[in-house]
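ARCHIVE CARD
Drawer: 12
Card no.: 0347
Subject: one protein chain, sequence and derived structure
Cross-reference: see card 0346
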Amino acid sequence: MYDKLTIKAFLDNQLKLFPEKVAEDEQEAAEFLEDVCATVCKNKKEVMEYLEDAMDISGMSEEEILSSEEVFAIGDGRYLIVEG
């Protein structure tokens, strides 16, 4: 379900959301993302729409939302949202 770029983005940035690593390798990361039902958004607009429904983002700028601890830039224009 999660491609290599998505898994790498999570592995490289998981300490942004969690105090310690929750996954050590790609397999553990993929399993963790599946367990928490992490969401891949295809662009910034989709992130904004998803988070409007999932949490209170009123008053936050797009930059603040995209840099929030739950949002991981994948590097190809997509974003991973992990609700810890």
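Annotation on reverse: The chain is about 45% helix and 10% strand. Residues 44-54 form the longest helix (11 residues).
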